[in-house]
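Build the 3D complex.
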Amino acid sequence: MELQIAVAKIEKYATSQSGDTVEVVERPNGGISVVMADGQSSGRGAKWISTLVVRKVIALLADGVRDGAAARAASDSLFTERKGKVSATLNIFSVDQQSGTVVITRNNPAAVLISLDEKIQILDDPCLSVGIYRGTRPLITEVPIEKGLTTVMFTDGLIHAGSRYGETMDIITCFQASLESENPSPQLIADDLLAYALRLDQGRPSDDITVAVLRVMNLSGDNVRRMFVRLPLEP
Amino acid sequence: MELQIAVAKIEKYATSQSGDTVEVVERPNGGISVVMADGQSSGRGAKWISTLVVRKVIALLADGVRDGAAARAASDSLFTERKGKVSATLNIFSVDQQSGTVVITRNNPAAVLISLDEKIQILDDPCLSVGIYRGTRPLITEVPIEKGLTTVMFTDGLIHAGSRYGETMDIITCFQASLESENPSPQLIADDLLAYALRLDQGRPSDDITVAVLRVMNLSGDNVRRMFVRLPLEP
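Done.
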């Protein structure tokens, strides 16, 4: 088997910086984590907040701290730093090779989607963003690593795409359609969701949007680890 | 224009963990950095060292510290932690959108390659690995961000590929050949170099090998930032 993770990300129209932050980090006992945060409001202030949260989490994960404890620490840290006045959403996907599971951590009202064999499960139990209250805890879901498992997380820019024009983003239908293509890559799934949102927003996203997709697939070819980053540069 | 970064990475044959570490991190003032370290020896001990070095560097870069200062700090930190008894090589590629340059940091006897318009420049001035002496300084080269600029860094596993079988890895010729394909992606360049090394090592790499390639290209399509990670899982 192999694991693939893809992230697609765009900033709110006419802002120079996205308030969303995503980082990928190796886990000290094997596996990998993707950490995504969306800082309250937009622009530089939001970026500062989401960066603080993500950095706190990845530093702890890199030390071998469990995901839930890392999320609680990030919340308390932001609460202490900003006296409960600013919030951020936080999600973590971790592939834990010790436990043989994907660990899904949510401090984000937005749902996380899980699919296996084209059946989609929606994780949308109520949970709080980090930073507002002392002692905020994440919701944690653990699922075995198995072929075909796909998990999707996103920031709320995806949910609200099109709302300025009276349109509604149907994330589940779009995800289902991507899953029906032949052995879809996570990059295809993430790109499809983001492209759909951008169409609804008429090419001018009304909020920062980030989509991250993790997928367990058949091993295709070699044993090489690969990483790829694409960054459009301003002219 | 857009920037693409690709990493290809494999561990020494019959070891469970590579001693090389690579992480990509956003820079707080715009742009991105790729940090690569190769810890002395192989397996878990080497991984511990390279992780320490990379984490130190990315934490400082994320705080806005300049690359040279971050590399010096990582060296002093490893020197202090391990009393000068262990070393690691360290390379950084940073795309600094404030200065409009790619900043290349070397604490690695292995060369860094730069290409523009298919002309290849070899950065191989002598420099020291980090961790052995107090006050080790990196070599820094700064080049303007321009279309077609390609930079390549690698760990010494690439250089020594095939040596067990009396073969010699001709990195420059392989890189030149990749550049001659039509608008090669950095992933193609990294994969070509690693595939060549694996052939020379008869599919059983005698050391951890990491190749990272950065390339400035024409903007192709949308303004979406993308990230992709592929991780083969043990059966």
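Chain B touches chain A through 51 residues (CB under 8 Å).
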